[in-house]
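Re: the 106-residue chain
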Amino acid sequence: AKGVCTAADMDEKIIDAVPSGTLAVGDSVRIVMEERLGTKAVFYGFFLPLLVMVTVLFSVSGFGGGELAALLAGLGSLAPYYFVLYVFRSRIEKDFVFRAEKKNKF
């Protein structure tokens, strides 16, 4: 069952976070980020690639390409998309800032 678990299901993760206040080694912390950044991550990771793929799929199909050609072009369009995302990862990383806040003891 562990093979089908996502990162959200795991207990231990390594995240770069900026401390919010004074923290000491061994403190129990909570990692937070702005809600708008979650929306932005979903946009870059899911919505935009889906839009690119569907646009290419219908464009190839509309210009007389067969179903197989449209399918392969649509799927093939994801490779350049994710490559561009990879190239600009340092620029995108600057937007995604996580903060470590001390947990309340109760």
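The longest strand covers residues 98-102.
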